[in-house]
Amino acid sequence: MTLSLDEGFWFVLGGENRLWLTAAGTLPKGRCDALPSHIQAVNFEVFDSWQGLPCYLADVGEDEPGDAFVSIRQLMEQGDEEAFRLAGRAWQLVNFHRTHRFCGRCGGAMSPTDREWAMRCEAGHVVYPRISPCIIVAVRKGSQILLAAHHRHYREDDPLFTVLAGFAEAGESLEQCVAREVFEECGIEVSNIRYVASQPWPFPHSLMMGFLADYAGGELRVQQEELVSADYFSADNLPRIPPDGTIARRLIRLTLDAIKADMP
Questions:
Q1: Is 124 a domain residue?
Q2: Which of 22, 123, 203, 227 sits a CA distance of 20 to 30 A from 75?
Q3: How many C-beta atoms surround the C-beta of residue 79 within 10 A?
């Protein structure tokens, strides 16, 4: 597209969910001609709006983009939830274009449609950005909460413990998914499953739907393929837990607040 010189927010992505930030560590905002020349040359398109300004998106490619690019998680860790949401949306759209260059039905080349975020092949088959529904659940047992250390972000010197999560399967309700995932990963049954909130989670295209549940029976048995360990923790001996801005942290806090409210 031909860039407007109007002010906007600039989401420049490269590599694997990496975002270009200014030297001050902030999301670029302003006029296009204020951006570095090598960024101005990138092909941008509008994908959203924020604070009354357009949000521009560009993909500089799948190779390592350089030191000025950081994980989009940094915006979440900085507490900028809306910037993180928009960067996540931008990354999901970039990932969608990268992974749908050819049609899964006929094998022909695909191109973006004009009126919506979709890709169409010459035969007319249209596909939309993939969204993978996931559950994430905090389980309470009396005055304790169930937390687990997952292989994918385990550090032996300072392990991160979080709540349980998993993808919904075909023909399964979200509540059924909660019960199945908890049983598969930890060997226990749960009851009183209730929905709390959702959070888009762009790694790469999940929609996390958060729940609370109560322990209903069974002995803790860790699924070794998924978890390093799992245990019940009280509020005064918590391990390292996910940062603010994550739905996992919100579920943990809600559970601990409920436990505190029930204490004599």
A1: no
A2: 227
A3: 11
Q: Which residue has the higher pLDDT, 90 or 2?
A: 90
Would you call 26 helix, strand, or coil by DSSP? coil
Both 87 and 147 in one domain: the answer is no
Distance CA 129, CA 119 (A): 9
Total structural domains within the chain: 2
Q: Indicate the SS3 state at residue 97.
A: helix
> Based on the domain organization, do 159 and 83 belong to the same domain?
no
Amino acid at position 196, single letter: V
Q: Which of 199, 192, 187, 211 is nearest to 138 (CA)?
A: 211
Contact 12, 20 (CB under 8 A): yes
Of residues 181, 185, 240, 192, the one with CA closest to residue 214 = 192
Q: In whole angstroms, what is the distance from residue 227 CA to residue 235 CA? A: 22
Helices (H), the chain: 37-40, 73-77, 81-99, 174-186, 247-262
78-109 pLDDT tens trace? 888 899 999 999 999 999 999 999 999 999 99
